Here is the input.
Amino acid sequence: MKILKSAVLWFTSIICGILTLTGLCSMPSSAGLLSFIIPAILLNPVIRKLAAKKKFYIKKSTTIAAVIAPLIITIVFACIFPAQTDKENTLTTKTSSAIKSATSSSETSSSSAPAQSSSQTTDTATESSAPASNAKLKVHYLDVGQGDSEFLELPNGQTMLIDAGVQERGAGIVSYIKGLGYNKIDYIICTHPHADHIGGMTEVVNSFAIGKIYMPRTSSSDTPTTKVYKNLLSAIKNKGLKINTAKSGVTVVDTGSLSIKMIAPNGTNYGDLNQYSAVLMLQYGNIKFLFMGDAGNVSENEITANVKADVIKVGHHGSKTSTGASFIKKVSPKYAIIEVGKGNSYGHPTAQCLKRLQSVGAKVYRTDEYGTIIFTSDGNVITVNKNASSIKENAP
Here is the structure.
């Protein structure tokens, strides 16, 4: 009987000790658990034995009170300090999503995963209104060298930036957008965290009022650890913004004759950062624009949505592993834009990709040949302005 009593005391004392440690790690909502230190001490057989030697005997009523009191205190503290859940959970889940090394298009380079939901202090309200009659859509395919960046002046008065090239182009992108008269970007889409897509985005986030930010969620093994990626997450967090998960089925804008929807990624464990790319379909009136990021054949084959479009931003700078024959036939674009650096070491765009675009009769525009290219549409007709100013690299 004595052995059983000792075992019960040891067990209860240890449990109370564990509860005390839990309270210490979960402040302030679980601070009440710290009071379990009292029964942890009073029930400890070693402490009781020492107390008995000093002729200090712990009464049964004292022991019971020592157990009940912490329970009451814990409940009170839980009511006063409710547990925080999603409020601070965005960048900590690390955009669980995003991606692994940040170098360039085929190199490896992507808060609170994707974090995908952080505190909303300066997350400026981005309520979309329907476009006015005959309002114009402008899509700027920015010449950022070997990288991607598209700035959209939407017909409802809002703006969107898809990617921002390498870090050295960030200041130039900011100057270009501000030169158009904008101090706010309503939607930022980081298609995936390769350096040639998100490198300049930190400068953008720091320079504008931002509405919403979207980034894909990746598996933990693909989550980037690069400085470029970490800098971007820090900029987002410091501005009090939250990250929304970019994935198939997400509607970014849907108002009147304008809609922008994500049709990829459709998976969460690719082992290839490019396949996590957010793919967007923009429709304005009767005109459709498709933005592929660096999505390759794997992602293309997973897309179930209707991909028929008038204009396509070709995936992965025109590599041989993107713009598959069957996929481009489904798109059947009139125009194809390839964002690529002149004389790049990757051989982009490849002859295979150009041949597949030619087979569907697409008119190809390349930023290495024309510089920044601007498409304008009223929802029925498209016009193209070539040879616009290119985005310069930052001075060394």
Observations:
- The chain is about 30% helix and 20% strand.
- Residues 2-83 form one domain.
